[in-house]
Specification:
Length: 171
Protein backbone atom coordinates (compact mmCIF):
# COMPACT_ATOMS: atom_id res chain seq x y z
CA UNK A 1 0.00 0.00 0.00
CA UNK A 2 1.50 3.32 -1.10
CA UNK A 3 0.09 5.25 1.88
CA UNK A 4 1.71 2.82 4.33
CA UNK A 5 5.03 3.02 2.46
CA UNK A 6 4.85 6.83 2.53
CA UNK A 7 4.13 6.88 6.28
CA UNK A 8 6.82 4.29 7.01
CA UNK A 9 9.40 6.26 5.03
CA UNK A 10 8.63 9.48 6.88
CA UNK A 11 8.45 7.90 10.34
CA UNK A 12 11.74 6.09 9.70
CA UNK A 13 13.48 9.28 8.54
CA UNK A 14 12.12 11.33 11.43
CA UNK A 15 12.92 8.65 13.99
CA UNK A 16 16.50 8.23 12.79
CA UNK A 17 17.09 11.99 12.80
CA UNK A 18 15.62 12.41 16.29
CA UNK A 19 17.47 9.44 17.76
CA UNK A 20 20.75 10.70 16.29
CA UNK A 21 20.35 13.74 18.56
CA UNK A 22 18.64 12.09 21.54
CA UNK A 23 18.20 8.30 21.55
CA UNK A 24 15.91 8.44 24.60
CA UNK A 25 13.24 10.64 22.99
CA UNK A 26 9.70 9.28 22.98
CA UNK A 27 8.60 8.65 19.40
CA UNK A 28 5.06 7.72 18.51
CA UNK A 29 2.41 7.94 15.82
CA UNK A 30 -1.33 8.24 16.34
CA UNK A 31 -3.53 5.36 15.27
CA UNK A 32 -7.11 6.33 14.53
CA UNK A 33 -9.98 4.79 16.45
CA UNK A 34 -13.11 5.79 14.58
CA UNK A 35 -15.41 4.14 14.06
CA UNK A 36 -14.47 2.09 17.10
CA UNK A 37 -14.97 -1.59 16.26
CA UNK A 38 -13.13 -4.88 15.69
CA UNK A 39 -12.12 -3.93 12.14
CA UNK A 40 -10.51 -0.71 13.38
CA UNK A 41 -8.54 -2.64 15.98
CA UNK A 42 -7.42 -5.13 13.34
CA UNK A 43 -6.23 -2.24 11.17
CA UNK A 44 -4.16 -0.88 14.06
CA UNK A 45 -2.02 -4.00 13.99
CA UNK A 46 -1.42 -3.69 10.26
CA UNK A 47 -0.48 -0.05 10.68
CA UNK A 48 1.73 -0.43 13.78
CA UNK A 49 3.69 -3.58 12.86
CA UNK A 50 6.03 -2.06 10.24
CA UNK A 51 6.60 1.03 12.41
CA UNK A 52 7.85 -0.88 15.46
CA UNK A 53 11.57 -0.34 14.78
CA UNK A 54 11.00 3.42 14.77
CA UNK A 55 8.59 4.08 17.67
CA UNK A 56 8.72 3.40 21.39
CA UNK A 57 5.14 4.32 22.33
CA UNK A 58 1.81 3.50 20.70
CA UNK A 59 -0.73 6.34 20.64
CA UNK A 60 -4.37 5.39 20.16
CA UNK A 61 -7.11 7.83 19.14
CA UNK A 62 -10.28 6.30 20.60
CA UNK A 63 -13.71 7.62 19.69
CA UNK A 64 -16.46 5.20 20.75
CA UNK A 65 -19.00 8.05 20.23
CA UNK A 66 -21.17 7.16 23.19
CA UNK A 67 -21.60 3.52 22.15
CA UNK A 68 -21.80 1.92 25.59
CA UNK A 69 -20.77 -1.52 24.35
CA UNK A 70 -17.69 -0.12 22.62
CA UNK A 71 -16.81 1.97 25.67
CA UNK A 72 -16.88 -1.19 27.82
CA UNK A 73 -14.54 -2.93 25.33
CA UNK A 74 -11.90 -0.19 25.48
CA UNK A 75 -9.84 -1.71 28.33
CA UNK A 76 -9.68 -5.03 26.48
CA UNK A 77 -8.71 -3.37 23.21
CA UNK A 78 -5.95 -1.32 24.86
CA UNK A 79 -4.60 -4.34 26.75
CA UNK A 80 -4.57 -6.49 23.60
CA UNK A 81 -2.52 -3.86 21.75
CA UNK A 82 -0.13 -3.52 24.69
CA UNK A 83 0.39 -7.29 24.88
CA UNK A 84 0.77 -7.68 21.12
CA UNK A 85 3.41 -4.97 20.74
CA UNK A 86 4.87 -4.73 24.27
CA UNK A 87 5.07 -0.94 24.23
CA UNK A 88 3.63 1.78 26.47
CA UNK A 89 0.18 3.00 25.41
CA UNK A 90 -0.96 6.61 25.24
CA UNK A 91 -4.60 7.39 24.66
CA UNK A 92 -3.66 10.38 22.56
CA UNK A 93 -7.21 11.42 21.76
CA UNK A 94 -10.62 10.63 23.11
CA UNK A 95 -13.78 12.67 23.37
CA UNK A 96 -17.16 13.15 21.77
CA UNK A 97 -18.49 15.93 19.59
CA UNK A 98 -21.97 17.39 20.08
CA UNK A 99 -22.16 19.20 16.74
CA UNK A 100 -24.54 17.66 14.19
CA UNK A 101 -26.06 15.15 16.57
CA UNK A 102 -28.56 14.99 19.41
CA UNK A 103 -26.00 15.20 22.22
CA UNK A 104 -25.76 18.11 24.60
CA UNK A 105 -22.85 19.13 26.83
CA UNK A 106 -24.16 17.17 29.82
CA UNK A 107 -24.44 13.99 27.76
CA UNK A 108 -21.00 14.71 26.36
CA UNK A 109 -19.67 15.02 29.92
CA UNK A 110 -21.24 11.69 30.93
CA UNK A 111 -19.79 9.91 27.89
CA UNK A 112 -16.30 11.32 28.49
CA UNK A 113 -16.45 10.29 32.16
CA UNK A 114 -17.59 6.78 31.26
CA UNK A 115 -14.93 6.48 28.55
CA UNK A 116 -12.07 7.59 30.80
CA UNK A 117 -13.32 5.47 33.69
CA UNK A 118 -13.18 2.40 31.43
CA UNK A 119 -9.82 3.38 29.93
CA UNK A 120 -8.28 3.70 33.40
CA UNK A 121 -8.91 -0.03 33.87
CA UNK A 122 -6.33 -0.66 31.13
CA UNK A 123 -3.79 1.53 32.92
CA UNK A 124 -2.55 3.47 29.87
CA UNK A 125 0.50 5.65 30.33
CA UNK A 126 -1.52 8.76 29.42
CA UNK A 127 -5.05 9.83 28.50
CA UNK A 128 -5.64 13.06 26.59
CA UNK A 129 -9.14 14.43 26.13
CA UNK A 130 -9.42 15.98 22.72
CA UNK A 131 -12.19 18.52 22.29
CA UNK A 132 -13.80 18.22 25.68
CA UNK A 133 -16.13 20.78 24.19
CA UNK A 134 -16.96 21.69 20.63
CA UNK A 135 -15.02 24.45 18.96
CA UNK A 136 -16.94 27.66 18.54
CA UNK A 137 -17.19 29.03 15.01
CA UNK A 138 -16.39 32.69 14.44
CA UNK A 139 -20.10 33.48 14.07
CA UNK A 140 -20.67 32.00 17.55
CA UNK A 141 -18.54 34.68 19.19
CA UNK A 142 -20.72 37.37 20.60
CA UNK A 143 -21.11 39.29 23.82
CA UNK A 144 -21.91 35.91 25.38
CA UNK A 145 -18.60 34.30 24.39
CA UNK A 146 -17.09 34.86 27.85
CA UNK A 147 -20.17 33.23 29.42
CA UNK A 148 -19.81 30.32 26.98
CA UNK A 149 -16.15 29.85 27.93
CA UNK A 150 -17.03 29.93 31.62
CA UNK A 151 -19.60 27.17 30.98
CA UNK A 152 -16.96 25.17 29.10
CA UNK A 153 -14.52 25.50 32.00
CA UNK A 154 -17.19 24.44 34.48
CA UNK A 155 -17.93 21.39 32.30
CA UNK A 156 -14.22 20.56 32.24
CA UNK A 157 -13.93 20.84 36.03
CA UNK A 158 -17.10 18.73 36.46
CA UNK A 159 -15.57 15.94 34.34
CA UNK A 160 -12.48 15.72 36.52
CA UNK A 161 -14.41 15.96 39.78
CA UNK A 162 -16.61 13.07 38.64
CA UNK A 163 -13.55 11.03 37.66
CA UNK A 164 -11.90 11.70 41.03
CA UNK A 165 -15.04 10.40 42.77
CA UNK A 166 -15.14 7.26 40.61
CA UNK A 167 -11.43 6.50 40.78
CA UNK A 168 -10.38 7.75 44.19
CA UNK A 169 -13.65 8.05 46.05
CA UNK A 170 -13.21 11.72 46.86
CA UNK A 171 -14.04 15.11 45.30
Amino acid sequence: NRDQEFILSHVKTASEAIRAIDPSTTITVNVSGWPMNDKTQENWGKFIEPLLPYINVISLDLYPDGNTEEIKKLPIRVEEIRKKFNLPIYISETGVCTVGCNLNNLTQKDIIIQTIHELLKARPNAIIIYEYTDELKSEDFSKNSIENQVQVNILYIDIFQELNKKVHGFP
